[in-house]
Design a protein that fits this description.
heterodimer; A: 260 residues; Elongation Factor Tu (Ef-tu), domain 3; 2 domains; 6-stranded antiparallel β-barrel; B: 303 residues; alpha/beta; 8-stranded parallel β-barrel; 32% helix; binds flavin mononucleotide; binds FE2/S2 (inorganic) cluster
């Protein structure tokens, strides 16, 4: 008994990062358990009759000293929109810790972490937690346009920062897989990680497979419960239909039945 | 502190708050949050004779005050359950009830015979009301002859408490309830989900892979309440009620309407601690109304 919790957190900060991304810092009532990159929390959306279910968010930062857990909310629909309206002092209910984390890289390995859209938070968290020297970590962040990117300069201490935008307003023009990190030297990495829109993750997975590089992705299937009871979030895998919320959200691409 | 103990036929419950099948896994997942032995009972995820992969993704659509699901009874089959899951959960100090499913009467019988051998399973819930499978399931539950046939045959091979789970997708649910009572059901439970549908207008596509699915949650509560009331008046066997129960007041309403016990389902997705809050709230309600036992509350609606 007793590894998962439902608790009311206090919003300590709600910071607007750009038009569609908000950073929420949430203070836990009790000491937080260890939560690793790729794991998530299921957040209740209050004060609305339209939104019935919670919304899952990858954890972005853990501050065990202050007992604060942070998430980045990207507005994708009505539920996430509503969550960006909370203010400091509000209480907000979380179910945590949920899901499995990314496999940590081994000592001295080289990794590429690719994030796009709502998938940015766990990639930044991973870069920070990887335990590797910054020169072994490449972060690649894709977005539609410069204005969709958020400021991640603070992460240059954990790895090199690389960008793509579809309109060419920031970094390489095109999708993440058009970046030289993919086209020139993907084989140099020991591990490639990706989180973001499905199309992006599939493109990353295809290139990683071609290059023969180990690759993990974090899926964002629709969820009802988030803790393995409803079987709504399933993903077909080589081991049958698995729950993304308990057996994932992180999967090695070799486990998935993606046509790539 | 009122006495919350109550019986459903031979099943002795420490309180009338149970978990609904398909919304609490095989109990272990809920035990991650609190000690499930505090509950009145647990209806485990629906089992079939053989492995079922269930329906394709997407299987869920959120609706105002509820959700549609089209899981399609994904489970690894009874043998897997007996060998791998049962040994891990059988020590839980609360009745574990198996939700029995089949495509044919023979399936139901064969599965029930296997369940009958399990010491720590004191009852079954015969599911003749799943709207999400192509064969069997709800097809048995929407006609009196169908419901009678499965109940009769299963009754022959099962000697513990037999609860039959009814479908609300019928014209008169009390007719079906009377039919299964006549074939030896010890109790009826209702409601299963209502067949519903959701569409993505922009994409001009259904939101579920199966197009239609089962609606649950507070959206269905008033209809479920009406059906429980009708059935409780029509039969003598105990009625187990569910459908959108989110708090103690909802549970009290169903018990007033005639339910002996309740199941909490979709509410668990919102907050898995809700059943504990309901137990506490029910206690408070009985104290406030100066009742010594929850039994006094059953069917005490004043009309
Ligand atoms: C995701 C999901 C899966 C379900 N699976 C089953 C099942 O396997 N067997 C069954 O008898 N009922 C199943 N049900 C129906 C519930 O047990 C319950 O009858 C229904 O949801 C109404 O109660 P509620 O509104 O409290 O959820 C399922 C419901 C949901 C939402
Ligand atoms: S979201 Fe319910 S099982 Fe994964």
């Amino acid at each position: 008994m007793g590894n998962k919790t439902v608790s009311d957190f206090i919003v300590t900060e709600n910071i607007k990062l750009n038009d569609t991304n908000y950073l929420l810092r949430l203070k836990a009532p009790d000491p937080l358990p260890i939560i690793r990159p790729g794991q998530f929390v299921n957040i209740e959306v209050k004060n609305t009759s339209e939104i019935f279910l919670r919304r899952p968010f990858s954890v972005f930062e853990m501050d065990y000293d202050k007992n604060i857990l942070s998430v980045i909310i990207k507005i994708l629909g009505r539920g996430s929109k509503k969550l960006t309206e909370v203010i400091a002092g509000d209480t907000i209910s979380l179910i945590y810790p949920l899901g499995r984390h990314f496999t940590y890289p081994g000592k001295g390995e080289r990794i590429l972490a690719v994030g796009g859209g709502s998938g940015l938070a766990p990639m930044l968290f991973l870069a920070k937690e990887s335990g590797l020297p910054a020169e072994n970590v490449d972060l690649l962040i894709g977005a539609r346009s410069a204005s969709d990117h958020i400021d991640v300069n603070a992460y240059s201490q954990y790895g090199s920062l690389n960008f793509t935008s579809e309109d060419g307003t920031l970094g390489t023009k095109g999708f993440v897989t058009h970046h030289p990190l993919f086209t020139d030297n993907l084989k140099n990495y020991d591990k490639v990680y990706a989180c973001g829109p499905e199309g992006m993750m599939k493109a990353v997975a295809r290139e990683a497979r071609k290059a023969g590089v180990n690759c993990e992705v974090s899926l964002e299937n629709l969820m009802a419960c988030g803790f393995g009871v409803c079987l709504c979030c399933i993903e077909p895998t080589v081991k049958g239909n698995l729950c993304v919320c308990t057996e994932g959200p992180v999967f090695n691409i070799n486990e998935l039945k993606w046509q790539i | 502190m009122a006495d919350l103990r109550i019986d459903i036929h031979d099943l002795q419950l420490k309180n009338p708050v149970m978990l609904a099948s398909g919304t609490c896994g095989y109990a272990e997942e809920i035990n991650e949050f609190f000690d499930v032995s505090e509950l009145g009972g647990i209806f485990l995820k629906g089992l079939t004779l053989h492995n079922r992969d269930g329906n394709l993704y997407p299987r869920m659509a959120e609706t105002p005050s509820g959700m549609l699901n089209a899981v399609g009874l994904q489970n690894k089959g009874i043998d897997y359950f007996i060998n791998n899951i049962y040994p891990r959960i059988k020590h839980y100090n609360t009745p574990l009830i198996i939700n029995v499913n089949g495509s044919t009467v023979e399936d139901y019988i064969e599965l029930t015979e296997k369940v009958n051998e399990l010491d720590k399973i004191p009852a079954i819930e015969l599911n003749i009301s799943c709207p999400n499978v192509k064969e069997g399931g709800m097809a048995f539950g929407i006609t009196c002859p169908g419901a009678e046939a499965v109940t009769r045959e299963v009754r022959r091979v099962y000697d513990k408490t037999l609860i039959v789970k009814l479908s609300p997708n019928v014209t008169d649910v009390s007719e079906i309830a009377k039919a299964v009572e006549g074939q030896g059901a010890d109790s009826v439970s209702l409601v299963n989900t209502f067949v519903g549908m959701a569409i993505d207008a922009e994409k001009r596509k259904p939101l579920l892979s199966t197009i239609t699915g089962g609606l649950s949650g507070p959206a269905i509560k008033p209809i479920a309440l009406r059906m429980v009331w009708q059935v409780a008046k029509a039969v003598k066997i105990p009625v187990v009620a569910m459908g959108g129960i989110m708090n103690a007041t909802d549970a009290v309403e169903f018990i007033l309407a005639g339910a002996t016990a309740v199941q909490v389902g979709t509410a668990l997705f919102k907050n898995p601690l809700i059943p504990l809050q309901i137990i506490e709230g029910l206690n408070g309600y009985l104290d406030r109304h100066r009742m010594d036992s929850v039994k006094e509350l059953v069917g005490s609606l004043q009309v």
